[in-house]
Design a protein that fits this description.
Layout (H helix, E strand, L loop, with lengths): L4 E3 L1 H7 L3 E4 L7 H13 L4 E7 L2 H9 L3 E11 L14 E3 L9 H12 L2 H4 L4 H20 L2 E6 L5 E10 L2 E9 L8 H16 L2 E7 L3 H9 L2 E13 L4
Parallel strand pairs: 2-3, 8-9
Antiparallel strand pairs: 1-2, 3-10, 4-9, 4-10, 5-6, 6-7, 7-8
Helix pairs in contact: 1-6, 4-6
């Protein structure tokens, strides 16, 4: 049972309070959340994240225990017949050996854009500044080995136009980060990077998955256009714990 609620040390360090993640088991009841509450006290938890499938009963139970809905996201799965557009852009180079630098302004803007639409930024208790702390470290870790594979699209000046990172989870390959710099948009960069991800997934004989916010209409259209099908819809809940 303890594996279903645990301290997230990455978020805890960056948000400067103890953060827990809760993963409800199927057919949860009050006893599950009562045990989680005891865990929060033991670990002096101040903030909780919880992602769950859409379920009215579970939503009511979460509300009863003080969780509040922050965002919703769609998980997409690439189909066997995904017809990726074989876009080309002769002005761009896709590399797997991009050198990360904290002073990289192009990568920094992509990071900021990703942070701004995250569930961290949507929570008023965390806000954009908290989200930026998380995503800046996340991006740095991506290039330091957290991601299994990183594709970066650059121009002749080696400026970062877009990035796509991948991680393996169980038998699937997940798109962890996908972002395009504002000055490089409408150049088919996302499609080019997605094609590279699909080729890599096929080489590993794994299925490609990705999650995006429900309200991110352009992203949803993009994945649907590339023959991704909805795997699931999840709600993301947070809980702030205040103690006297």
């Amino acid at each position: 049972m303890v594996n279903n609620f645990f301290v997230d040390h990455f978020d805890s360090k960056l948000l400067e309070l103890n953060v827990a993640k809760v993963i409800p088991v199927p057919s949860v009841d009050h006893s599950f959340f009562d045990q989680a509450e005891l865990f929060f006290v033991q670990e002096n938890i101040g903030l909780v994240f919880c992602s769950v499938p859409c379920d009215v009963k579970l939503g009511l139970l979460l509300n009863e225990y003080g969780y509040y809905l922050v965002s919703s996201r769609i998980v997409y799965r690439a189909t066997d017949d995904s017809s990726f557009h074989k876009d080309k852009n002769d002005d761009l180079l896709v590399t797997e050996n991009y050198q990360y630098s904290e002073s990289d302004s192009f990568l920094a803007e992509i990071t900021s854009d990703l942070a701004a639409v995250s569930h961290y930024a949507k929570d008023p208790f965390i806000g954009l500044q908290g989200a930026l702390k998380v995503y800046r470290q996340w991006m740095k870790n991506t290039f330091l080995g957290y991601a299994q594979k990183v594709f970066v699209a650059t121009n002749e000046q080696r400026q970062c136009g877009g990035i796509l990172s991948l991680r393996t989870a169980k038998n699937d390959l997940f798109i962890d980060l996908l972002g395009v710099h504002s000055s490089f948009r409408n150049k088919r960069i996302a499609s080019i990077l997605l094609r590279q991800a699909q080729i890599y997934a096929e080489s590993l004989k794994k299925t490609l998955l990705v999650a995006t916010q429900v309200e991110n209409i352009p992203a949803n259209r993009f994945y649907q256009k590339n023959s991704f099908l909805v795997e699931s819809v999840e709600h993301v809940y947070h809980k702030i714990i205040t103690r006297k």
